[in-house]
Write a structure and sequence with these properties.
binds fe (iii) ion, Nitrile Hydratase, Chain A, 2 domains, 4 strands, two-stranded parallel sheet, mainly alpha
Length: 211
């Protein structure tokens, strides 16, 4: 896939349809400026500000835009909130639709065929491979992204974070927790989430199994 993309890029550049510098700028923007730290700020604010959380639940596109996170692949956002009564998980069964303005570019496993097919069939088994085991009493709801709608999971706020500032809270929000394949980090972790993806070890590998 990577090779085909590069070949296509070379061809389009040679024909003069594309400018390499422009492509590099776009990639650099989504790798460095845009990324899961944006989503982490949205989640931390929802945890800290009940009025904002309500707005996010009712009109995620507007609430997220109000924080300056707008752009391609984020035009129609829906926020889903994890609770002890329901765990949300996001997939794109068709391809790799993903909310770029809040999460940046999708990880390789999100685009993999096993993740896309198995998440719908056996979400609990996929979660287990990410190191997430939910109580049997917590149903898992899977949301299929489309070209129209992109989802942001708001993970549950970790215990013992009363009085934390939104900046501190954002440090507990990992990328995977906003896809639903992870949970927010515990308070004792010190909040590495904002700096890296800080995903559980299992998430580095695509979900195994047959497609
Ligand atoms: Fe897609």
């Amino acid at each position: 896939m990577d090779l085909r993309v590069r070949a296509l890029e070379t061809l389009l550049t040679e024909k003069g349809y594309l400018e390499t510098a422009a492509i590099d700028r776009i990639i650099q923007t989504y790798e460095e400026r845009v990324g899961p730290r944006n989503g982490a700020q949205v989640v931390a604010r929802a945890w800290s500000d009940p009025a904002f959380a309500r707005w996010l639940a009712e009109d995620a596109t507007a609430a997220i835009s109000s924080m300056g996170f707008t752009g391609r692949q984020g035009e129609h956002m829906v926020a889903v909130f994890n609770t002890p009564a329901e765990h949300h998980m996001v997939v794109c069964t068709l391809c790799s639709c993903y909310p770029w303005p809040v999460l940046g570019l999708p990880p390789a496993w999100y685009k993999s065929a096993p993740y896309r097919s198995r998440t719908v069939r056996e979400p609990r088994a996929v979660l287990a491979e990410f190191g997430v085991t939910l109580p049997e009493s917590t149903p898992v709801r899977v949301w299929d992204s489309t070209a129209e709608v992109r989802y942001l999971v708001v993970p549950m706020r970790p215990a013992d974070t009363e009085g934390w500032t939104p900046e501190q809270l954002a440090g507990l929000v990992t990328r995977d927790s906003m896809i639903g394949t992870g949970l927010a980090l515990p308070a004792c972790s010190g909040g590495a989430g904002a700096r890296g993806t800080a995903a559980p070890a299992g998430s580095a590998t695509p979900a195994k199994g047959t497609a």
